[in-house]
Specification:
Helix content: 55-70%
Order of helices and strands: HHHHHHHHHHHHHHH
Radius of gyration: 22 Å
Largest sheet: none
Number of strands: 0
Number of helices: 15
Length: 346
Amino acid sequence: MDNSIVISTPPHVKSARTTKGIMLDVIIALLPAAIAGIVFFGWRAAVIIAAAVLTAVIAEFVYYFIYNGGFKAKCANAGGVCISWLKQFDFTSVVTGLILALILPSTAEWYEVVIGALFAIIIVKMLFGGTGKNLVNPAAAGRVMMFLSFSITTYVATNFEPISLDSNLFTGATHLSGYLLGGTASAKMEWIDLFMGVGLAGCIGETCKLALVIGYLYLVIRKVIKWWQPLLYVVLSAFLSVCLAATAEGASFDISLFVDYALSGGLMFGAIFMATDYVTSPKGVYGQLVYYILLAVLTSLLRFYTKLEVVSFVIMIMNLIVPLIDTYIVRRPFGYKREKKVKEGK
């Protein structure tokens, strides 16, 4: 009888589902946001999505080909390496490229997108061992690198006019900037415009919240993510942002701003598609609670004090803390019973 134990890389799923199947579900859930982004921002959005996805897949293949000796002995084993890559291909690179594209503005240049995708796949993912071994979310790391390297802070509004014609659009980078920089009530957009994404400046995949909700519901129905995880992050972050805004000089507590904070910036997209990543999030329920609460606290604090959209930065920071959470917040093993201490003298 073979008593050996096989230890595989995460994500560990207690079902017949495979990593490839889960990634396909994530791609399907991302499609509404991708389609909405192309409709709202035009051909530039389509070019960015195509460039990011193709670069991510090609970068993974080239790294795998070189690492597995595809060029050795005058490429004698090149065909076998290619077949091996196809067999292990799990669509994680497609998901990384697609997420990276959707958290970029349509003003990004194609070569910037290519560099960001190369960094995400080769540096953040493959150098650490590939799928299941990356320390941080590759797409978030690629976005942060592009922000620091190319100062990608220019956003354009969507191609459609606001549904509420009396809305006054804020002239800053995004609608969220209006609140972070102390925008007045006249800078507010109507909630329907924020939800649908019309007349709203932002990244390709974050503007249309209807598309994000469709993707969220699909992932929940398919049991890829737990319904409460993104909700906890978004609701708590928006509420804390309202509380922090009330501390500003001359400000008061205005709960009506809750929806504006929840529907502005990349909060919803990050909460649904990035913070819930199996590899870079805690494994236990209690650890997940701590993780999403800290995400919300850090997001609201850094938004308030830096006056920037910081979701990708915060997700990266919390990814690095996840090993500590898994170490010190351990789930009780099934059937475990704490031993009763025997008092001295008995």
